[in-house]
Amino acid sequence: MPSFDEVLKEAGEFGRFQKRVFFLLCQTGIAFSSLFASVVFLGKAPGSYWCRIPGAAELSQRCGWTLDEELNFTVLPLRLGNGSSSGECERLDVTWDPSASCASPLARCSNCSTSHLPLTPCHDDWVFQQPHSSIVSEYDLVCGNAWMLDLSQAVLNLGFLAGAFTLGYAADRYGRILIYLLSCLGDGACGVVVALAPNFTVFLIFRFLQGVFAKGTWMTGYVIVTEIVGSDQRIVGIVIQMFFSLGVMILPGIAYLVPTWQGIQLAISLPNFLFLLYYWVVPESPRWLLTRKQGEKALKILRRIAKHNGKYLSPHYSEISISHNEVSNPSFSDLVRTPCMRRNTLILMYAWFASALIYQGLVMRLGIVGGNLYLDFFISGAVELPAALLIVLTIDRVGRRLPFAVSNIVAGVACFVTAFLPGDSPWLKTAVAMLGRLGITIAFEIVYLVNSELYPTTLRNFGVSLCSSLCDLGGIIAPFLLFRLAAVWLELPLIIFSVLAVIGGLLVLLLPETKGISLPETVEDVEHLSSHFGKCGKKRKHRDPNSYI
Known about the structure:
Helices cover 64% and strands 2% of the residues. With 549 residues, the protein is mainly alpha-helical.
């Protein structure tokens, strides 16, 4: 009875069918990265704003003031009497008398003088020159409420975290394509509600839910791609991440053309409904079907793949060998029950956490500090493209482990060197920091591939989702780590990043090499794979060439 990989080789490991599925699912990466980075434009600084004095709206309407005239009466006296106040987070502690003079509304203020005007903190009723340009102006996320903007991104990352656990588990139990389609539907629907949210509470709730479903689309789509190609073609798992960078590059163009945050939110959410059309063109993973003892369905899909690839499956392929182990629903204990699975899981969890924390930390550190927001953001996405190209050129020649380890160590060394470079050479600090960004991006992209190759089919989606959830935890911690430590010493975060990266580079050397190895189908396959690298990691000199079949 032939194995799945033998039949797939006959049907075509990366023919027209797989290329079409690959291209279609790559679009998920564009949508996901646009959501991931959208807070930069959804929460864009709203321009000038000031705090409106109670009664000012009614008086302004009676007097026929323009916004500029109201500004002159509201903020100008404040700046003249209290030079340290800008009028953004404080207002005059007065209430306009509806019968006040339109020419001099402060004339009846008994405790006001030219040298001193009474002030009070502003809690609501801000006036924005661009009222609907971002969620900051829409929900008054300024002054004492500014932390809520950070909360909106933290909530999205919490959604990613929840989606990794719940939908990763569901995809292993109920099927890849079913969960992918349901996630696309949920992603699009929640995204529309976010755009139409009447208040910030509703915005946060559905942004969290959109994060849950978005993680399901990205992770499940990635697993489908890696499971329908041959072992020599799994580099597509790296290439698909180039579309993530492409989404980062496209986002500023969308934001430039669409003037409101609601429009931007809809533009990055509505494409998910188009992905529902994949129901007719993207099949269920035949590897997953085999683990659920649905060999006939798997063989039917393989015949479909062969037909589209211009191949012909021999009639003797009437059955495919499958695991005779009882099918069970995945759990965390399955990932740590055996020695090598436990080692792989713990190292991969650390790699995800460190990569995400360092990546987001470096992005925020090199963040936008003036200049052209749209151009700067486009360039920041373009910097990531060489990472995927370097991986494509090296990973099938030298394997996974060495580039994985070297990229982490390069990132760590670059961060350490940047911390001690003199401040009078900004171009040099930027160049070395960009080298660190390139290194950690390579590590970030390789961990996707290695993670999927080190878990058996029965646990693959759950394992990838669980380990990648540490990525979301790193994303939540990154801003707090960066800004708190930078308050002590500006370069201190870089020292922490360098230590985390170098540790990660050393740890991944303990993982087995997966270059040219068939995807494991069972936990025993993983342990068997690791046994060819000594005691869970060190490669032995002699091995049985048939052991990978």
